[in-house]
Amino acid sequence: MIICCGEALIDMIPSATADARTGFVPHAGGAVFNTAIALGRLGHETGFVTGLSDDLFGQQLAAALDQSQVDYSHAIRSSLPTTLAFVELSEGQARYTFYDENTAGRSLSPTQLPDLPEAAQALYFGGISLISEPCAEFYAALAEREAQDRLIMIDPNIRASFVQDEARYRARLERMIAVADIVKVSDEDLDWIIGGDTGLDAKAGQLCAAGPHAVIVTRGAEGATAVLKSGAVLDAPAHPAQVVDTVGAGDTFNAGVLARLAQDGFLSKSRFPQIDANTLRNALVLGARVAAVTVSRAGANPPWAHEL
């Protein structure tokens, strides 16, 4: 089992109304939610840890998880509202405005850590849930507690404009990176984490030295690069696609990577350090295929296994 740990929210997607004004349609979303949905659709046993509201939007999220066969029995339920993210699209690129005060997801604290099933071999973390407090400390504490026995993958998916206390956020990321086995970042994320004019491969190697066995850097249409702790560097091309929008692209890339690692038997704490470059490249290739389907249609709508 792969357990995704992070935010579930409602993306309010702009849509033209009958009188030609712009309205917003609620879509189930959130970076980690999207990854969980994609993994479920790819046929992998998937769990989800989040703060889930019992309001109408929380019910929409729960229904979407059910439809994609994701187990959310370890979610922390409450009557607090669901986080809303209003999306602005410009030439297919998404910008977000979050409404996240006192929500079910944000209000999690380290005192609420759930007991996880023994079947969980890997935990995945990411998104704005690593920024907003107190939930960010909930997820950091969960990663630190589980890192000894389970593979940890992190995608910080950094939104610098959302960070209110940069020093605390950077310190938390350092703690989580130190216990991670895999860190996935975009090229922009990597430049934010490690400043200066050093090349991406060198920065990825520097991040790798801080803890993870592998750092994966996505570069949009230029594909992805992985740097291993051994110093090996490998590249995988992007998969061709007619882009409608990029909502959920990185999230579903991560699902493809995790799915292929699980398929090849390397999604465990003991096996992953033994991975070879070709096996990891195959995981990046599947990640690119899954992401290509997602960007070819509106919103975060990951493919089912039969669509690949």
Helix/strand layout:
Elements: E1 2-5, E2 9-16, E3 22-29, H1 31-41, E4 46-49, E5 51-53, H2 56-67, E6 70-71, E7 76-78, E8 84-90, E9 93-99, E10 122-126, H3 135-146, E11 151-155, H4 166-179, E12 182-186, H5 187-193, H6 200-209, E13 214-218, E14 224-228, E15 233-236, H7 249-263, H8 277-295
Parallel strand pairs: 1-4, 1-10, 2-8, 4-6, 5-7, 10-11, 11-12, 12-13
Antiparallel strand pairs: 2-3, 8-9, 13-14, 14-15
Task: From the structure above, extract its key features.
8 helices, UDP-N-acetylmuramoyl-L-alanine:D-glutamate ligase, 9-stranded mixed beta sheet, 24% strand, alpha/beta, 15 strands, 4-stranded mixed beta sheet, 308 residues
Word description of this protein:
The structure is a single chain. The protein has 308 residues and is an alpha/beta fold. The chain has a single domain (2-307), classed as 3-Layer(aba) Sandwich (UDP-N-acetylmuramoyl-L-alanine:D-glutamate ligase). Helices cover 32% and strands 24% of the residues. It has 8 helices and 15 strands. The strands form 3 sheets. A 9-stranded mixed β-sheet has the order 6-4-1-10-11-12-13-14-15, with helices on both faces. Helix 1 packs across helix 7 (249-263) and helix 3 runs parallel beside helix 4 (166-179). The chain is globular and about 55 Å long. The model has no long low-confidence stretch (mean pLDDT 93).
